[in-house]
Design a protein that fits this description.
By secondary structure, the chain is of the alpha/beta class. The protein has helices spanning 25-34, 49-61, 84-96, 117-134, 146-156, 170-178, 195-203, 233-244, 248-263, and strands spanning 9-14, 37-45, 65-70, 100-109, 138-143, 161-163, 181-185, 209-211.
């Protein structure tokens, strides 16, 4: 069950504007608030007009919601003929959304390869440059593309943000921290076989650590197989706190403060 006794939680990454939550958004928000979740960063796809149109409904349902907008690497192929168009679409969406606080999720996904890798890199790089121009942090999606992800970020120069739904090991976490980034852990950290991720949970400094659901995906144990939702971020917090030997309420407060410092909500 969600941890109703825990307060001050923030879900640093979810997809509340997705079709999965259209039918019962108000109930989802009510459950989150009952579980002590004060707010959430909701991801919007800059190339999905319907999702962008649902953002005002999400904001109206939950005053604690803020947004991050970008073109996901899965959609990068739509901009193969003009990678700069992805940044232009993101810029328009950010300008139209007063609650936008970040650019993302953006990055590289070499696991599914839904778009050519060279196109992914170009689309990613254009959006990182946009974030720099806007003075916004980036929300990074990277899967089986670690070296190229860091190469794009290094070429862009100083930029900050978060590696969301982190699935790497301690070595990669150290690399992200050294590059000036935060690390966000999802429900995957609750999975029995996530040994390396559990080490990461204990390793990352509290002022660089975030927690998330990535809902509707990746529901934590004991909710696996169900639609994930922000109320379950309390379970992520509980498990990460246990791995760190820290009271869950203390970790909730620390990750919320870190979220506020990064995203200036």
């Amino acid at each position: 069950m969600p941890n109703a006794q825990m307060n001050g939680l923030i879900d640093s990454h979810c997809h509340l504007a997705g079709t999965e939550f259209v039918a019962d958004l108000d109930a989802v928000v009510a459950r989150a608030r009952e579980a002590g979740v004060d707010g959430a960063l909701t991801i919007l796809a800059a190339d999905d007009a319907e999702e962008l149109d649902r953002a005002p409904q999400v904001a109206a349902a939950w005053a604690g919601v803020r947004f991050s907008v970008g073109v996901h690497p899965h959609a990068a192929g739509r901009f193969a003929e003009g990678p700069a168009g992805a940044a232009e679409a993101t810029a328009r969406a950010v300008a139209a959304q007063p609650l936008a606080r970040a650019v993302g999720e953006i990055g590289l996904d070499y696991h599914y390869d839904f778009a050519p890798r060279d196109t992914q890199r170009l689309v990613f790089a254009e959006q990182v440059q946009l974030a720099k121009r806007l003075g916004l942090p980036v929300v990074i999606h990277t899967r089986e593309a670690e070296d190229d992800t860091f190469a794009v970020l290094a070429e862009a120069g100083p930029v900050t943000g978060v590696f969301h739904c982190f699935t790497g090991d301690v070595r990669m976490a150290r690399r992200a921290l050294d590059a000036g980034f935060h690390v966000s852990l999802s429900g995957i950290v609750t999975f029995p076989r996530a040994a390396e991720l559990k080490e990461v949970a204990a390793f990352v400094p509290a002022d660089r650590l975030l927690i998330e659901t990535d809902s509707p995906f990746l529901a934590p144990v004991p909710h696996r197989g169900k639609r994930n939702e922000p109320a379950y971020v309390g379970r992520v917090c509980q498990v990460v706190a246990e791995l760190r030997g820290t009271p869950a309420a203390e970790l909730a407060g620390a990750t919320s403060r870190t979220f506020s410092q990064l995203f200036d909500p």
